[in-house]
Amino acid sequence: MSEVLTKQPAEKVPYAIDFVNLIPTGDSLATVTSVASYPSGSGDLTIGTAVIEGTEVRFVVEGGIEGTTYCVEAITLTTLGYTLEGDGRLFVTDRT
User: Fold this and answer.
1) What span, in angstroms and rounded, lies between the C-alpha atoms of 5 and 87?
2) What are the residues whose beta carbons fall under 8 Å from the beta carbon of 49, sequence distance 6 or more?
3) Of 19, 43, 44, 56, which has the most beta carbons under 10 Å away?
4) For the chain, what is the mean pLDDT?
């Protein structure tokens, strides 16, 4: 994912990583193995429970440090047994 999404530090917002271009023909997402964000440390982004909706892994994010761009990674298993990793970028900024 090349798109960089933005949120303010106090916001709690939905986020999705789309695996449409990674899923082999005839396969589908089965389970989410993990969702994590980098960099990590004090003031981390908090990631809620992930769910699969079609070709997307969806979850809620909150917190984060002003001025930080996070890489958010989701790892999934498919119904045919493949492991796929998708990621996106999230920039935390105070837009006031």
Assistant:
1) 12
2) 59
3) 19
4) 92
**How much is the average pLDDT of 29-38?**
96
Q: Which two tokens stand for residue 59?
A: 């979850």
9: which DSSP letter? T
Q: Which residue would you say has higher pLDDT here, 73 or 3?
A: 73
Q: How far apart are CA 62 and CA 13, in angstroms?
A: 7
Tens-digit pLDDT profile for residues 79-95: 999 999 999 999 999 87
Q: What is the DSSP letter of 82?
A: -
User: CA-to-CA distance for 94 and 73, rounded, in angstroms?
Assistant: 23
Neighbours of 31 (CB within 10 A): 11
Record the tokens describing residue 86, joined without a space: 């998708």
The sign of the CA dihedral 8, 47, 65, 18 is negative
